[in-house]
Design goal:
Elements (H helix, E strand, L loop, with lengths): L1 E4 L54 E2 L2 E2 L7 E5 L5 E11 L8 E7 L8 E4 L3 E7 L4 H22 L7 H6 L1 E4 L14 H10 L7 E4 L2 E4 L15 E4 L6 E2 L2 H10 L8 E6 L2 E5 L7 E3 L13 H16 L4 E2 L5 H21 L6 H8 L3 H10 L3 E4 L2 E5 L2 H11 L16 H4 L1
Parallel strand pairs: 10-12, 16-17
Antiparallel strand pairs: 1-15, 2-3, 4-5, 4-8, 5-6, 6-7, 9-19, 10-11, 12-13, 14-15, 18-19
């Protein structure tokens, strides 16, 4: 893709490659300013005599002895000061502690994996320890809870099925051949389990970028020599990373890069984009990341829209690199929904999937997935059709939310690679 640059208080970059957030989330190659550098929040608790005190000998807990086993379910005091259910994912001995002094890497079962973290024993409520839990039963219960949660979300954004009269008012007919869909390749069960095991624990807790410190969300495949490094120091210009602050300071004295790498291909007001777009697999965006202080400001949506404007200029369809992360998928679903339904609202005659793809540069499979997920494709009278009732589409558009910063196509100055050659 490219890179986006803004003034000192609005700096952002992106570059082609495997990174987080939209594609599974691994490299921290993109930069913005973040929250001011502060010391890590520590949540202090207090051990009761019954739950165990200092290090050393064997300590009793409800249902067994310390240390807690991987897989144990217990309540943990989180940063909001309240106890939340967690599952122990991993454990490690504390430096200088006794044989049973451990820290525990826990997953908050109510929240996304990005909040997984290392906690101290005093944060855990040992009276809440669950033992001999049947994992299959527990997983089923969790699944049912999620299903009810999802059902509530669906109910909130429920859309009515079109009546015959509504369909007759505004119906888009598709041929059967246009409805064929090819699923994206997925990891098989064994590979998925291996991937989850390898990435279950965040290896880097925080990064320092300029004057700011940012908590990481997921595991990142840094070289083995960084396995024991809890914090990395990044150059905010070239994005090289070091283990120690002194290394960064020496690097900064020699680094002469003062803007994102690549050629500037877009400038609109205080917003700039720098070019590095070339993909053998025809992806139009390989990575997208907005660091915490710039989230919910429209930058991520801007990058998605910008990538499709580049695809239009190339004269071919585009799609993001897979697999998509949870947040990346939500962002793309919102973009596809807004773009496609805006066209269907204005189009008063039959339109094919290919025509939609040509108009938007969105890949046909992504269009079909989007319309099917919105329950807009129906099979009526021997053929597939898009139910484009205006009221129904308005409800979907409202649920998709607003678009991001607007892309001013007149400010895009870029020659596709095939034309350069």
């Amino acid at each position: 893709m490219g890179s986006m640059e803004a003034p000192a208080d609005e700096t952002m970059t992106t570059q082609n490659g495997s990174a987080e957030n939209c594609n599974g989330g691994d490299h921290h190659h993109l930069s913005t300013e973040a929250a001011p550098l502060t010391s890590e929040m520590e949540i202090q608790g207090e051990l009761t005599p019954e739950s165990g005190g200092g290090g050393g000998g064997e300590r009793k807990r409800k249902g067994g002895v310390l240390p807690l086993d991987v897989g144990t379910r217990v309540n943990c005091r989180w940063r909001d000061g309240k106890d939340h259910p967690v599952k122990v994912i991993e454990r490690r001995r504390m430096q200088g502690g006794g044989p049973n002094d451990y820290e525990y890497y826990v997953h908050y079962t109510e929240f996304n994996r990005r909040l997984d973290e290392w906690v101290k024993l005093e944060q855990l409520d040992l009276d809440s320890v669950e033992t001999d839990v049947d994992e299959k039963v527990e997983d089923k219960a969790t699944s049912l809870k999620m299903t009810r949660h999802q059902k509530r979300k669906i109910d909130e954004s429920h859309v009515e099925v079109c009546t015959s009269s509504e369909v007759n008012d505004f119906l888009v007919i598709l041929s059967s051949s246009q409805i064929l869909m090819h699923g994206h390749e997925e990891l098989d069960a064994a590979s998925l389990r291996e991937h989850e095991e390898f990435t279950k624990v965040k290896n880097i807790a925080t990064i320092e970028l300029g004057r700011y410190e940012i908590e990481t969300w997921y595991f990142s495949p840094f070289p083995p020599e960084y396995n024991d490094t809890m914090k990395l120091y990044f150059c905010e210009f070239c994005l090289n990373f070091m283990k120690r602050k002194e290394q960064l300071q020496r690097h900064m004295r020699k680094c002469d890069l003062k803007h994102p790498p690549g050629d500037e291909i877009y400038r609109s007001g205080t917003l700039s984009m720098f070019e590095e777009k070339h993909s053998e697999e025809s992806y139009n965006l390989a990575c997208i990341l907005t660091l915490p202080p710039y989230q919910r400001k429209g930058y991520g949506k801007f990058l998605i829209a910008f990538s499709y404007e580049l695809s239009k200029k190339e004269g071919k369809v585009g799609t993001p690199e897979r697999p998509l992360s949870d947040l990346g998928l939500l962002s793309y679903k919102g973009y596809w929904t807004r773009v496609l339904l805006d066209i269907l609202k204005k189009h008063k005659s039959n339109i094919s999937i290919k025509e939609l793809s040509d108009m938007t540069a969105i890949k046909a499979e992504d269009i079909l997935n989007t319309l099917q997920n919105l329950d807009l494709i129906q099979y009526r009278k021997g053929q597939h059709a898009i139910c484009a009732d205006p009221k129904l589409m308005e409800r979907h558009l409202k649920a998709a939310g607003r678009g991001g910063l607007e892309v001013d196509v007149s400010k895009l100055i870029w020659t596709p690679y095939k034309e350069q050659g």
